[in-house]
Amino acid sequence: MTVHEAALGRYFEDFVIDDIYQHPFGRTIGEADCSWFTLLTCNTNQNHFNAHLARQNPVSGGRIIVNSGLTIAVVLGLSVLDMSQNAVANLGIDDLKLTHPVYVGDTLYAESICTGLRPSASRPGFGIVSMRTRGLNQDGDEIMSWNRAALLPSRESGVGQGYFPVAKVGPLSRSR
């Protein structure tokens, strides 16, 4: 019997410059997502929650346009599994571009390319991974992009490993 220990995400040494990661999940944005996020962030722009007013918006084509803060958060979240699941810190996001509107009902996807790797000068056992991420809608339109850097541990650091508890009653078996 083989026990596969709980593990998720990549470590610094797993990345290769110019490798592209097409993140596996898509996320459809519903009207409730847009309304709740807009309320949560105290954004009072009615184009995010008032369908009647949104019909007058020449950019939205009369549809409710999704709060850009939500689209950024979703695309970032979609990238975490591959790029920063084990990160201990985000170090920066820059060159953020919002290139296509997102509407209620759109499904968002994300992909990233590793653009740089370097060992941390101040934290032995850690490295800085630089990446470019972009979000796509269901039609393949690029909706946004940015550059990001994150501090990731190496496997030798032990960070993010060995957290699964040992069962007090012993190993799992077919008969229990």
TrEMBL record:
InterPro entries: HotDog_dom_sf (IPR029069), MC_hydratase (IPR048274), MCH/BMMD (IPR052342)
Pfam family, one: MC_hydratase
CDD domains assigned to the protein according to its UniProt record, in alphabetical order: FkbR2
Annotated signal sequence range: none
SUPFAM superfamilies: Thioesterase/thiol ester dehydrase-isomerase
Identification of the protein by name: Acyl dehydratase
GO molecular function, one term: lyase activity
Gene3D superfamilies recorded: Hotdog Thioesterase
